[in-house]
Amino acid sequence: MAFSPGIFWAYYFIRFDWRRPEPPGLIIQVFLWGIVMGFFALLIEKGELSYIFPSLSFSSFLFIVLRAFLIAGLVEEGLKYLLVRLLVYHRKVFDEPLDGLVYCMTVALGLATFENVAAVFIQGTTAILIRFLTTTLMHALTAGVMGYFMGLAKFNLKKEKLYLFLSLFSAIVLHGIYNVIAQINLPFGLLSLALWLILMLSLIHI
């Protein structure tokens, strides 16, 4: 059950690449490597900001923001980015800009699947129902923006460095914004998350 959200969203988004679909074996490989990246992200994030900024209060807004952007955003989006760049970016099968979205979203959903498995062990199976439309989808959407710019970089050598920077930077920022909204007690917190997800889903489909 913990695998179902990641597999569902992977199928949902990959099916748009019907003109020149990617090799199924490579898609599976990238997804599985995403799960491994989820494990590495957990190990890295265990350090937490409490060791870097010991004087910060766990409940302070500054701590929440730093953790959202520097820990969750930078670490998780950075691992997704590195995997696609090292494993797929220079392959011949990466032959159109849309492939950036396909591979980045696939690795992101693998990482989200690891998080879902961990959530089931800690919170029980009911956690999957919530994560299906929130965290799992968030990982896919931020990676979609990452993949959009990575696809542009692959086929625009003059602006490759700029687009690669935007690929990682935009994903970190969007991931951080999501985490901040999710962790602070806004009066319209759930509505804000819903609007964020709807906006990001709309951008991916443009």
The 3D shape can be described as globular
Number of helices: 9
Q: Count the E strands.
A: 0
Q: How much helix, percentage-wise, in residues?
A: over 70%
Structural class given helices, strands, pairing?
A: mainly alpha
End-to-end span in angstroms?
Answer: 31 Å
Global mean pLDDT:
84
- Poorly predicted sequence stretches spanning 5 or more consecutive residues: none
Biggest pleated sheet: none
Order of helices and strands: HHHHHHHHH
Gyration radius, to the nearest Å? 17 Å
Residues in β-strands, percent:
under 5%
Summarize the entry for a quick read.
The chain is an all-alpha fold. Helices cover 78% and strands 0% of the residues. The longest helix has 27 residues, at 61-87.
Task: Describe how the helices and strands are arranged.
Layout: H1 4-14, H2 24-45, H3 48-52, H4 61-87, H5 98-123, H6 126-133, H7 135-154, H8 160-183, H9 189-205
Report on this model:
- With 206 residues, the protein is mainly α.
- Helix content is 78%, strand content 0%.
- Helix 1 packs antiparallel against helix 5.
- The longest helix is centred in the middle third of the chain and has 27 residues.
- It is globular and about 45 Å long.
- The two termini are 31 Å apart.
- The model has no long low-confidence stretch (mean pLDDT 84).
